[in-house]
Cytochrome c
Amino acid sequence: MKKTRLIATAALALSITLPAAAQMSVEDQIKARQGAYQFMAWNMSKIKAQAVDGDIAYNADQMKAAANAIAAVANSGMGALFSPESSLDKADDTRLKPEFFEQPEKAREVGMNFGREANKLQAVAAEGDKAALARQFAAVGKTCKACHDNFRAK
Ligand code: HEC
């Protein structure tokens, strides 16, 4: 009984999410993911300015908001914005390498690492410790870079 219900729930979840993702054009996938990355970079730059460089006075609430935004994007299911048709060998105006689909295990690994560190960033920012946030900022930055080094063209 329980199992049947689980499968039904999973099927329902799929029927809701898959068509929505499939309807998105390749152009829209590219625009949405580039916008998402820019938005994360903007929030990362706020953390850098306040927690790392100290250019701007540390404001714990702003740091929390920035980290929450990054974690929200990281947990939003961005995988739906990546289709093989949207890589740079098949589409215009993108730097996504086809290797992203040719090396699915590596892609999953860098994606999981990023998600894990983004969630930690959110937790650390919530505690309000500037030095800890600076350290976690660096940890997240490494996971951004790992994906770029593997899957983003210059
Ligand atoms: C899972 C892989 C992955 C992770 C993790 C990742 N990126 Fe990227 N990023 C990409 C890819 C691929 C592109 C190129 C997207 C395109 O052109 O379609 C990109 C593009 C960008 C861009 C340029 C967007 C534009 O306007 O073209 C910025 C800025 C960026 N990433 C910042 C970040 C930051 C900051 C993080 C971490 C907080 C991050 N990325 C994490 C893969 C990743």
